[in-house]
């Protein structure tokens, strides 16, 4: 690609010199305009960083980093206020953790079945359905958690003693939300494993179970990890399910039957009201946002290294 | 693929030499198959339940009044008129921003950028990272920069539309780049050989050939934007709106915000209204996805 673009550029000056020089000027102007449009993406990142950093610094000058880390509770509106971010991180990890533990086996199982067992006909139908389900708005999942999973599944059917707002329903539904993402992307990775590897293993007398788990899965590992990473980062940043179904209550415990709050849900719950610019409450949004931003950033950085380490390239 | 697990007799011989007998292997193999199938089954059944439950709860509220009435404190009179119009306005603003900016970025990155320059590599990494930033963070950006702060647009259609546009811009850029990359170099070279400048080549040859791919990307981006709730909670605030949005400076609500508003009400009648609003949203999404698939199949060119 680079080589052809290069050769094209070498031809262009000759062609231009035959025409009017203003064309040359116009071409350069267009190049600058296109670059300016591209710069908007960079400006977005800078804008996010600036917005988060400037208010977070103000927040810390008022509240102090120490209480942000060491306070036992997250209660910015109480008197005296407490700013222990740990409670929100705890909620984020608990809800995301349960969701991931459920979604990984179910998602990978679906992917293995689609890639290794399903007939081409079945795959042709199920794959697009999964891809459309990836795009279902998260408000739908929140509604489902609050009006169906908690009352019908958990309370009536399973008889679990959960409160109306609880972390368990949010986790279960979050697992369903990220399932299509994990299944669809890892299926792509598994289908991309060259057929020759499978045939070689079958030739050695391997069963389908052995081929799936010891040949296809390791060969597709980098793609599978990428799928899981994408699922986890969607889960960490997910707002609506938790906001609607988990109860908006910071919690230091580990019992998912109780209400919890995550970082993202706190940001939305606080931003909902018309809070005055410059108030401490306004700044908590940014401090929490910065924490969430760093969390996803660190997580993605680890994941990228992991994917690079296990990447296998065939042909 | 055709080589089934139990077909070759050679496998029996191979298995016989292993510590576990062939029968045990076959049993494990069958169990594994069933386990994988049940994973897929559970996934599909729960996802279908999700849609069906919503449809069952919501379909009773859907009638003509539901589309023409404003939100109301009486559930029997409440409708989605303002939300539907707000959604259309926001999608319009969003499309007007992401189409030119997204396509221009895609053209620059594919056709002009020298991949060896550090700033071009930085831009590429930056776009990938932006796609991974949680949507609520874009809400913070919108709140701090567009609603308040430097631009001070207030909680308006313009602020909401731009926030969503920035959120889905990476989708358009990535899809646009793929569409432009799929146009073979011979097309460009032929045009150049006839004396066209680089821009003439791009505008008259490359872009027309890439339009189906770009359009698919734009529709997918809009279908993500239309369902976003979290960033708009910060930018728009789910306030009570009982009037049509009249322009870029108008306050607004959108379908998912209206649904969220109704979900937050304790009465179950409002929850059913939320289901109905979600059903309308899902209908719009289905139409958009169908158009995207149709575009891809109808205009896909093989070179």
Q: How would the blueprint of this fold be written?
A:
The complex is a heterodimer of chains A (315) and B (303).
Chain A: H1 2-18, H2 21-63, H3 65-70, E1 74-75, E2 82-83, H4 86-117, H5 120-134, H6 138-157, H7 167-191, H8 195-203, H9 208-219, H10 221-237, H11 240-245, H12 263-272, H13 280-310
Antiparallel strand pairs in A: 1-2
Helix pairs in contact in A: 2-13, 4-7, 4-10, 5-7, 6-7, 7-10, 8-9, 10-13, 12-13
Chain B: H1 9-17, H2 22-58, H3 64-68, H4 81-112, H5 118-132, H6 135-147, H7 157-181, H8 185-193, H9 198-227, H10 230-235, H11 255-263, H12 268-299
Helix pairs in contact in B: 2-12, 4-7, 4-9, 4-11, 5-7, 6-7, 7-9, 8-9, 9-12, 11-12
Q: State which percent range the strand residues of chain B make up.
A: under 5%
Oligomer: heterodimer
Task: Label the structural class of chain B.
Answer: mainly alpha
Radius of gyration of chain B: 26 Å
Would you tell me the overall average pLDDT of chain A? 87
Summary keywords:
heterodimer; A: mainly alpha; MetI-like fold; two-stranded antiparallel sheet; 13 helices; B: 303 residues; mainly alpha; 12 helices
């Amino acid at each position: 690609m680079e080589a052809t673009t290069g050769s094209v550029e070498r031809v262009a000056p000759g062609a231009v010199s035959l025409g009017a020089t203003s064309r040359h000027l116009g071409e350069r102007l267009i190049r600058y305009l296109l670059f300016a449009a591209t710069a908007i993406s960079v400006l977005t990142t800078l804008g996010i960083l600036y917005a988060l950093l400037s208010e977070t610094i103000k927040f810390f000058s008022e509240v102090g980093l120490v209480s942000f880390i060491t306070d036992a509770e997250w209660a910015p509106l109480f008197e005296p206020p407490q700013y222990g971010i740990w409670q929100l991180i705890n909620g984020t990890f608990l809800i995301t953790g349960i969701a991931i533990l459920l979604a990984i086996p179910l998602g990978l199982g679906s992917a293995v079945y689609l890639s290794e067992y399903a007939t081409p006909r079945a795959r042709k139908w199920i794959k697009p359905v999964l891809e459309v389900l990836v795009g279902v708005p998260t408000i739908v999942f929140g509604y489902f958690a609050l009006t169906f999973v908690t009352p019908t599944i958990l309370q009536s059917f399973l008889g679990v003693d959960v409160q109306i707002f609880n972390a368990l329903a949010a986790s279960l539904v979050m697992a369903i939300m990220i399932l299509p993402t994990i299944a669809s992307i890892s299926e792509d990775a598994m289908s991309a494993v060259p057929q020759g590897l499978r045939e070689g293993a079958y030739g050695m007398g391997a069963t389908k179970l052995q081929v799936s788990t010891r040949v296809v899965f390791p060969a597709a590992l980098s793609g599978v990890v990428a799928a899981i990473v994408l699922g986890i980062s969607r889960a960490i940043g997910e707002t609506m399910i938790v906001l609607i179904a988990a109860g908006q209550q910071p919690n230091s415990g580990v019992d998912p039957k109780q209400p919890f709050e995550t970082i993202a849900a706190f940001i939305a719950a606080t931003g909902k009201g018309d809070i005055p610019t410059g108030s401490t409450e306004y700044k908590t949004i940014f401090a929490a946002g910065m924490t969430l931003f760093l969390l996803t950033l660190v997580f993605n950085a680890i994941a990228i290294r992991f994917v690079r380490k296990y990447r296998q390239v065939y042909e | 693929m055709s080589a089934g697990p139990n077909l070759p007799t050679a496998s029996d011989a191979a298995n016989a030499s292993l510590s576990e007998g062939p029968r045990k292997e076959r049993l494990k193999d069958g169990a594994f198959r069933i386990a994988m199938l049940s994973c897929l089954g559970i996934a599909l059944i729960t996802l279908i339940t999700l849609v069906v439950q919503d449809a069952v709860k919501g379909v009773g509220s859907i009638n003509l009044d539901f589309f023409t009435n404003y939100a109301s404190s009486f559930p029997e009179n409440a409708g989605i008129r303002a939300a539907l119009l707000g959604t259309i306005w926001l999608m319009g603003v969003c499309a007007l921003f992401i189409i030119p900016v997204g396509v221009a970025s895609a053209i620059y990155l594919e056709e002009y950028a020298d991949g060896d320059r550090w700033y071009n590599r930085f831009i590429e990494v930056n776009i990938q990272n932006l796609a991974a930033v949680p949507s609520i963070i874009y809400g913070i950006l919108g709140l701090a920069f567009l609603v308040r702060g430097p631009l001070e647009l207030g909680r308006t259609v313009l602020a909401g539309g731009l926030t969503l546009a920035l959120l889905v811009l990476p989708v358009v850029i990535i899809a646009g780049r793929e569409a432009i990359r799929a146009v073979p170099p011979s097309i460009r070279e032929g045009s150049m050989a006839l004396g066209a400048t680089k821009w003439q080549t791009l505008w008259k040859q490359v872009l027309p050939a890439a339009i189906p791919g770009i359009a698919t990307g734009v529709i997918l981006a809009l279908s993500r934007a239309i369902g976003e709730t979290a960033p708009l909670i910060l930018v728009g605030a789910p306030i009570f709106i009982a009037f049509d949005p009249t322009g870029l400076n108008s306050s607004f609500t959108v379908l998912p915000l209206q649904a969220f508003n109704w979900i937050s009400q304790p009465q179950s009648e409002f929850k059913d209204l939320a289901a109905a609003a979600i059903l309308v949203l899902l209908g719009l999404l289905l139409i958009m996805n169908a158009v995207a698939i149709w575009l891809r199949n109808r205009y896909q060119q093989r070179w």
